[in-house]
């Protein structure tokens, strides 16, 4: 399958990984939008949030636990951070393998003002 994040998961495309377990990898975004910007990616290929099924419920929990662990390891757990999933065209999803952005290291601003 021609999927960038599957290739990063397999290691055929290099990445700067901060965490890896049986279910999830976490690596630095190549174009960081904040002082801390990593991507939490399930090893299983799921194209988008719309493709998550009941079968993936434990995996979604693993993603949240990995986000928490990565935030702790990167030193932003106490100061706070934001976890974002972009889905589909209006969500500006560009890589069609489910992933969550973890952003932190600065005040990120309110979503609405
Ligand atoms: P999306 O826009 O789909 O929510 O997020 C995709 C993210 O993947 C973007 O923030 C982009 O910078 C990041 N990205 C794209 N290609 C690569 C790559 O080859 N390596 C890494 N580490 N990040 C990438
Ligand atoms: Zn994939």
Automatic annotation (TrEMBL):
Gene3D superfamilies (alphabetical): HIT-like
Per UniProt, the short sequence motif Histidine triad motif occupies residue numbers 97-101
CDD domains, sorted? PKCI_related
Q: Which SUPFAM superfamilies match?
A: HIT-like
User: Which InterPro entries does this chain map to?
Assistant: Histidine_triad_HIT, HIT-like, HIT-like_sf
Instruction: Write one Gene Ontology MF term.
Output: catalytic activity
Q: Where is the HIT domain?
A: 4-113
- Active site, per annotation: 99 (tele-amp-histidine intermediate)
Query: Protein name, please?
Result: Histidine triad (HIT) family protein
Which organism does this record belong to?
Paenibacillus polysaccharolyticus
């Amino acid at each position: 399958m021609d999927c960038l994040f599957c290739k990063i998961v397999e290691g055929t495309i290099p990445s700067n990984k901060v965490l890896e377990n049986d279910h999830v990898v976490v690596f630095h975004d190549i174009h960081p939008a904040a002082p801390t910007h990593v991507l939490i990616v399930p090893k299983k290929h799921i194209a988008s949030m719309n493709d998550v099924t009941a079968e993936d419920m434990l995996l979604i929990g693993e993603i949240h636990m990995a986000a928490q662990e990565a935030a702790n390891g990167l030193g932003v757990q106490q100061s706070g951070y934001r976890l974002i999933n972009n889905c589909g065209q209006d969500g500006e999803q560009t890589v069609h393998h489910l992933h969550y952005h973890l952003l932190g290291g600065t005040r990120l601003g309110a979503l609405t003002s």
